[in-house]
Structures are given as C-alpha cells and as structure tokens.
Amino acid sequence: MEADFNTPPTTCEMAAKEEIVVKKPEVQLKGIGLGDNEDGDIAAAVCNGTVASYSLESSLGDCKRAASVRRTALELMTGRSLNGLPLEGFNYESILGQCCEMPVGYVQVPVGVAGPLLLNGSEYMVPMATTEGCLVASTNRGCKAILMSGGATSILIREGMTRAPVVRFQSAKRAADLKFYIEDPTNSDSLSDIFNRTSRFARLQDIKCAVAGKNLYMRFSCFTGDAMGMNMVSKGVQNVLDHLQIMFPDMDVISVSGNFCADKKPTAVNWIEGRGKSVVCEAIITEAVVNKVLKTTVPALLELNMLKNLTGSAMAGAMGGFNAHAANIVSAIFIATGQDPAQNVESSHCITMMEGVNGGKDLHISVSMPCIEVGTVGGGTQLASQAACLNMLGVKGANGTSPGSNAQKLATVVAAAVMAGELSLMSALAAGQLVKSHMKYNRSTKDVKAA
Ligand code: ADP
Question: How far is the CA of 277 from the centre of ligand 1 (A)?
Fold first, then answer.
C-alpha cells in the first residue's frame, strides 16, 4: 500500500528503460472497437505504443484476453519467450483492480503442509508456499515435537493496525498544540466517532504523537476485524485529518503515511508498540521428545539459544531479530494464504526464549511476536488458491459471528508454526545436522556429487 501510483509507462517506455532493443511493428487497426481486431494486431499496436498496455482490460472487456495480448506484445518486443510462465488456469477477473496490474501470467509456488500442529487444543494443518528445500520438513518435525509433548498455547495479547500521517506547521509550538489537542481525553470520543464512521469494523484505539520540530507524526492504531486493515485504517485517518484541518487551518498535511506507522520497514516503534496482532506462544517439550524427535539435548538447546538468538543477535545489533528463522515460516504461510509478503519485514519480528523446566529436565520454549499482520478478507485472501489454504486452516473469509476472530486465529497459528520452525532448526544446529540435511533435501544427487 506504499506503492507509487504514477501513470503506467507504455510497453516501449519500459523496454527503453531496460535497454532492450524494441521492435516496432507497423500495424493498422481496422476494427471499430479494439476487441474487433485480431489479437496479433492488437499486440503489435501495444508494442509500437499505439495502444496502452495498461488499458487492455478495460478496452477489451476480457481480462484473460488482455493478459494473453499483453504477453504476445512482450514476447514480440523482447524477442524472448515466456514459455514456462503459465497463462492458462488462472482467473484474471479475480485480480482486476485489487491484486495485480498488467498481468502476463502467474508464477507457480509449491505448497507443502506441516502438521498436525496442536495449538490451544485444536489441530491445524499448516500450508506453506516455498521453494526452499527442508523448510516444510523441518517445520513438520517441530510440529511433531509439539504434538508429542502435549501441544502449544498461543495467546493474542494486543491488536491494532497502524497508520501515521505527517503534518507540518509554521512553528514547533503549533505542532505541539495539535499533539496536546489529540492527547486531551475530552477530545477522544469525537475523534473516535469521526474515525469509526468510515467502516463497520474499524474501531480507533489510540493515537500516539511524536514531534520533530514543526512536524507532527500521529500514529493511529485501530481494530480492523478480519481485515489486515491498511485500507481501513487509512480511510479513518483521512476522515480525522479532514476534521482536524477545520480546527487547525494552518496544518499542512504532508502525507497520510509519514513512516512512523511503520509499514514494511524494520523499526523500533513496531517492535516496542506492536502492529497488527501481537502474539506470545509457548510449549513445554519433554526431554524424551528433545532426545528422540529433535535428536539433541535440552542443555545443548539452552546454550545455543543464549549464544545465537540472544547474544549473537545482540552482537549483530538486531532489532526484532532475536530468532533463528521466523521469517522463513512467516513468508511461506503469508504466500500460501494471500497475505502481503512485504509485511514479512515486521511480521517476522520475534524473540525466541528457551528455559529448562521441571528441574532443568524439560524445555520451555516461547516465541513473542509483536507485529503479525494478517487478514482473512481483502487483498490476496479472496483468490482461489489462497482462499483454499485459509479454508484448510478453518479461517477462510470473514467470521460472521465474531468479526476479527478468523484473523486472530490465523495470527496464533503463524506464531505456533514459527515456534515449530525454531525448535527444529535450533535442534538441527545443536546436533550439527544442518549441512547434512540440506545436502539431502536441497540438492539433487548430481549437485551433491559435484559438491
Ligand atoms: P484492508 O484494510 O486489509 O486492506 P480491505 O479494505 O481490502 O482490507 O477489506 C476489508 C473489506 O472487507 C471492507 O470493505 C470491510 O467492510 C469488509 N469486511 C467484511 N467482513 C469483514 C470482517 N469480518 N472484518 C473486516 N472487514 C470485513
């Protein structure tokens, strides 16, 4: 949602930037409407700039045909084949105006499944879209360790999607005046009313202000039901800004997003305050399971966690990165379930803690993740493949009886799957198995022999 919405360049302008030698075929379009022409002629017209590539969907009124023509134009223009990138088997209507512009096909990512993941008394089969060998197998092993130890508990401790506009005044005093106005409890009801009017689901929780000279950053936090919530919170923010403009006519709105939000960037504000769903997840893994399933020992895991996830990350100056590979599991579930993969940045913030319990015999593991940004409605979640993966988890679409609870449940599953991934990778490292298992699952026999 931080994209730049400039007018799309023509195909030939794109090619010029890429320094591709463009062929500009001569073509005369004779049909009355664009769609009355042969596809090859329309593609030639796209290629020579007579027809704008981005207008094909609206002028042809057929998304699949538009993608096919655009693809032909691209092949014509570059002289390179797109064989291998499928065109057939996808509903191009379903992405129009919502998920992707100027499509020419779709990339296939395999989906594996890890589980059962026993979490809060229920079993989940976790879909993971990835091309990294070992990842699903490893997460699956972590799930097994959790299952054999009696399951995990995952708790949502806070939720609220954020957006922080930046506004400017002629003086620092005026920026401070607005901060005091927003923080005055007698104004909070009216600000909430104005914000909440924009959606049935949006509920303003608080506005955190930060002053930088004459500029004010207002970090709005809001409940967004089953939606990840960026659109929802942005609409509410715009309503409040319009209202504040009347009260503070000297306020200059610089941008609805001033990066104090903070979307898709690693920041301390997200790590400390949280963004999206903040979840903590824990399990006690018995000594027998650590030995038999994870093939290591509790003391080896405790030492490794201290030296790698805590001390090693501190030495590296990490922020939110006190874990072994949370981003691996987060990204794979995000891609499978239609989340915004770029939000993996803050959604993967995680601290993994390990402690000896029951006299030091068994392992207590926890992951604390303050910024899991997920939804089960909106964006890519409504596409057929992604909706099927949400359905496998039992969290597809809006929850009719308790809005928000599908997205909340998904966040708790993400955290528990991360914990499974942490358990397995940390155990592999502690047992010195990592390279061996990667050579087994990640390389073809040919590569292994060559290596
Ligand atoms: P986002 O804010 O995550 O970008 P969208 O605005 O695309 O999401 O999608 C949310 C839309 O879904 C809104 O129009 C909202 O009214 C609708 N909606 C329907 N049911 C729910 C629900 N249970 N929770 C949140 N939004 C819902």
Answer: 16
Please tell me the distance from the alpha carbon of residue 110 to that of residue 108, in angstroms, as a whole number. Answer: 6
Distance, CA of 141 to CA of 14 (rounded, Å) = 46
Query: Which residue's CA lies nearest to atom 19 of ligand 1?
Result: 398
> Tens digits of per-residue pLDDT, 94-103?
999 999 999 9
Q: What is the mean pLDDT of the chain?
A: 93
Q: What is the pLDDT of residues 311-347, one digit of tens each?
A: 999 999 999 999 999 999 999 999 999 999 999 999 9
Residue 194 has pLDDT above 60, yes or no: yes
Q: Name residue, tokens 């512009």.
A: 101
DSSP conformation class of 360: T
Per-residue pLDDT tens over the stretch 393-445: 999 999 999 999 999 999 999 999 999 999 999 999 999 866 666 666 666 55
Mean pLDDT of the 48-59 span: 96
C-beta 142 within 6 A of ligand 1? no
CATH of 165-255, one of 3.90.220.20, 3.40.50.720, 3.90.79.10, 3.30.70.420: 3.30.70.420
Cα separation, 385 vs 399, whole angstroms: 19
CA of 48 to the centre of ligand 1 (A): 41
- Whether ligand 1 lies within 6 angstroms of the CB of 378 is answered as yes
Positions annotated as catalytic residues are 132, 264, 340, 438
Q: Is a pLDDT exceeding 90 seen at residue 32?
A: no
- Contact between 412 and 281 under an 8 Å Cβ cutoff? The reply is yes
Ligand 1 touching residue 232 (CB < 6 A): yes
Distance 166 CA to ligand 1 centre (A): 25
CATH of region 111-158+274-450: 3.90.770.10
With cut-offs at 50, 70 and 90, classify the pLDDT of residue 28.
Answer: confident
Q: Give yes or no for residue 201 CB within 6 A of ligand 1.
A: yes
Domain residue spans of the chain: 3-95, 111-158+274-450, 165-255
CA 62 to centroid of ligand 1, rounded, Å: 27
Report the distance separating Cα 431 and Cα 436, nearest Å.
11
Phi, psi at residue 193, to the nearest 5°?
A: -55, -45
Say if ligand 1 is within 6 A of residue 380 CB.
Answer: no
